[in-house]
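Need residues for this backbone.
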C-alpha cells in the first residue's frame, strides 16, 4: 500500500463554535471518516500552539486578528488565539475517527514560528519530519483533506508536490477560510504545482 490519506487539522477550534471557525468545517467529518477505509495509511495533523504563540494577534500590540505582519521568516497572518496545547479547542472534532490513524503529527509548537504545512514550518526550511516518515514507509501517493483549504491544506499539498509526491486535494472534504482572495490564490497555486483537485 503506497497511498496515504492526510487529514489536516480537523480540530474543534476550526469548526463552527471554535476560536477560528471555518464555515462548514464540521460538515466534512463523516466523509473524511468514510475516506479512511480505502487508505493504505491515515495521518492526522494537529495544530498545537503554546499559549502566547507568535501567530496570535493577542501577542502584537496594535494588531487585530487577520492583520498581516512581517516576521523574520516572511509575512504572517495574525490569528485569534486557537488550538492552544491541551485545550478543548485543540482537540479533534469528537466525531473524527481516531482509531484508523497510524500517525498523529503535531505542528506549530514552537513559540516563535507558525507551521501551516505538515512538512515545513513557515520558514519553508524547518522540517516536521513527515517527509522522512512517508518515504520510510514507501507512501508516495498522498490525498489531502481537512481544514483549512487555503492555508494548512494548500501549504501541505504544495510542499508535498515540491518534494515529488503524487498529490491530490479532495475538495469536497475540505473547507476554506477565504481571506482576501486566498481561496482563488490557493487553487491557482495548487493547479500550477500539478496537484490534482479532485
Ligand atoms: C490554520 C490558520 C492558523 C489551518 C492553522 O489549519 O489552516 N490556519 N493555524
Ligand atoms: Zn494555527
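Answer:
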Amino acid at each position: 500500500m503506497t497511498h496515504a490519506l492526510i487529514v489536516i487539522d480537523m480540530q474543534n477550534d476550526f469548526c463552527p463554535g471554535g476560536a477560528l471557525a471555518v464555515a462548514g468545517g464540521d460538515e466534512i467529518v463523516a466523509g473524511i471518516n468514510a475516506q479512511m477505509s480505502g487508505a493504505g495509511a491515515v495521518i492526522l495533523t494537529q495544530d498545537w500552539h503554546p499559549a502566547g504563540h507568535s501567530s496570535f494577534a493577542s501577542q502584537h500590540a496594535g494588531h487585530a486578528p487577520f492583520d498581516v505582519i512581517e516576521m523574520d521568516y516572511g509575512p504572517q497572518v495574525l490569528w485569534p488565539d486557537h488550538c492552544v496545547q491541551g485545550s478543548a479547542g485543540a482537540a479533534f472534532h469528537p466525531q473524527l475517527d481516531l482509531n484508523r490513524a497510524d500517525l498523529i503529527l503535531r505542528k506549530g509548537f514552537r513559540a516563535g514560528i507558525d507551521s501551516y504545512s505538515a512538512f515545513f514550518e513557515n520558514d519553508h526550511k524547518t522540517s516536521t519530519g513527515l517527509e522522512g516518515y512517508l518515504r520510510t514507509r514507501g507512501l508516495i501517493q498522498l490525498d489531502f483533506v481537512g481544514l483549512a483549504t487555503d492555508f494548512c491544506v494548500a501549504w501541505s499539498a504544495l510542499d508535498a508536490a515540491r518534494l515529488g509526491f503524487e498529490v491530490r486535494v479532495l475538495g469536497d472534504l475540505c473547507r476554506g477560510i477565504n481571506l482576501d482572495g486566498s481561496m482563488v490564490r490557493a487553487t491557482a497555486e495548487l493547479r500550477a504545482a500539478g496537484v490534482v483537485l479532485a
